[in-house]
Specification:
The chain is an all-alpha fold and 436 residues long. 75% of the residues lie in helices and 0% in strands. The protein has 25 helices and no strands. Helix 15 packs antiparallel against helix 16. The longest helix is centred in the last third of the chain and has 20 residues. The protein is rod-shaped, with a radius of gyration of 38 Å.
């Protein structure tokens, strides 16, 4: 069975969710807020009148922002502290102050302090709606980064209830938060919604969104939906991992034909190079009754060293050649397996393969080698020796072998009939004047 790695930190790390475009968006919003004293979008979404920020406060916050950009943390915090000491700050001025604190802590990668500052922003009265929305979303991102997944989910849910026409990213972040909390059934919905929004807008769906949905459906054993996602992944983002998982998922659904087809596609695209992968492909081919191709793959891999030359692998090759009616090749591979193992069953198979070729002496010798090493059903080997001796015209040795076969319950009936047949054949030959 092919398994998929599902450890939560490994699927979507918390740090990765707050890097790149998301982090830049947060910083850009914070910069605009500090510079102009109004939250982006306030003109469109404003439902309360915003009190203007006093010039001296604006000047201090601007200096704090410039110091932050220069990574002069002391100057940044000194300017912010000057504002904090001022009396009669309006709710809007306090909101701007704590936003600036949040940004400065964020720039220092002090995310817990940054989150605490943004939470103080939300405590202010008469907060502009656009500023409230952006702060809530920022807190959702920060708490996700801090691995406070329940808090992150709560903030993101609040934001989605208030936001108009949101893009796919917030839904992805919410789905990741639920996934990290182990709430897999809740996680699938937001991720699928993000994908639907991206499709509606004509945007390309990111591979990792489908990958997250894949893991969710795998862990919840929702195989029909898992297959849908995997079929998209192998079509749009063909990779070894997805092809192997698709093959495994078909196997879980009992669709062995498609299981083989997906695994074979991975091989045809050059993804399967390791010996154990070729062996699994051969096993699937044998299950599908395509023995000659299985034998060809195994023979090539064993000959060039790609497949480890173990007794088990040589035995598997012999099974392929036997099924393909390639008995000479089967004997050669069985002998290789026998050299690496003292298993009498291997010699029993050699005996049968020689019998299939009509090589009776070799069959009798191999059957005796199997008996010497021990087999589960010795009676069958005595029968085989008896038949070989009969074909060789050695009737007394044949009767002796069939006599031994009578001692085993599984072969007693056949042995009795063979003994009677040999006796009749000897009588017939004597009547013809031939001494059998």
């Amino acid at each position: 069975m092919i398994r998929v790695k599902t450890s939560r930190p490994g699927v979507h790390s918390s740090r990765g969710a707050f890097s790149g475009a998301a982090a830049r968006a947060v910083m850009a919003a914070l910069l605009l807020c500090v510079l102009v004293g109004l939250w982006p979008g306030a003109g469109a979404a404003q439902t309360r009148k915003t009190v203007a920020m006093r010039e001296k406060i604006y000047a201090k916050l601007s200096k704090a922002q410039e110091a932050t950009e220069a990574q002069d943390w002391k100057a940044a915090f000194d300017n912010l502290a000057d504002v904090e000491r001022m009396k009669d700050l309006s709710p809007n001025e306090k909101a701007q102050l704590f936003t600036a604190y949040g940004y400065t802590y964020f720039a220092q990668e002090k995310y817990a302090e940054s989150a605490a500052s943004y939470e103080k922003v939300l405590e202010q009265e008469e907060l502009p709606e656009a500023m409230r929305l952006s702060t809530i979303y920022t807190l959702g991102q920060l708490h996700f980064h801090l691995e406070h997944y329940q808090q992150a989910a709560d903030y993101l849910q609040d934001w989605l209830k208030l936001a108009s026409n949101p893009g796919p990213e917030p839904y992805i972040l919410l789905g990741q938060a639920y996934y990290q909390l182990g709430k897999l059934e809740q996680a699938a919905g937001p991720v699928q919604q993000a994908i639907d929004i991206a499709r509606e807008r004509g945007a390309r769906v990111q591979e990792n969104w489908y990958a997250l949905l894949r893991v969710i459906y795998f862990e919840t054993k929702n195989y029909p939906r898992l297959l849908e996602v995997l079929e998209i992944l192998v079509r749009d983002y063909p990779a070894k991992e997805y092809w192997l998982h698709l093959s495994s998922a078909y196997g879980e659904m009992g669709d062995t034909a498609r299981q083989l087809a997906a695994y074979d596609m991975a091989y045809q695209q050059g993804f399967l190079k390791r010996g154990n992968e070729i062996v699994l492909l051969a096993q699937l081919l044998l299950q599908a009754e395509v023995p000659y191709r299985a034998g060809t793959l195994l023979q090539q891999g064993l000959d060039d060293g790609t497949i480890e030359g173990t007794a088990a692998n040589w035995r598997l090759l012999s099974q392929a050649w036997i099924m393909a009616q390639e008995h000479q090749k089967a004997i050669a591979s069985l002998k290789k397996a026998a050299e690496l193992s003292d298993d009498g069953e291997l010699h029993a198979r050699i005996a049968q393969s020689y019998a299939n070729l009509g090589a009776w002496q070799e069959s009798a010798d191999a059957a005796q080698a199997a008996l010497d090493r021990g087999v589960a059903k010795p009676g069958e080997l005595h029968l085989m020796r008896g038949m070989a001796f009969f074909e060789l015209g050695r009737y007394d040795e044949a009767k002796k072998a069939f006599g031994k076969a009578q001692n085993s319950e599984e072969s007693r009936g056949v042995a009795v009939r063979w003994l009677a047949f040999v006796e009749r054949e000897q009588d017939r030959l004597r009547q013809l004047g031939i001494n059998p």
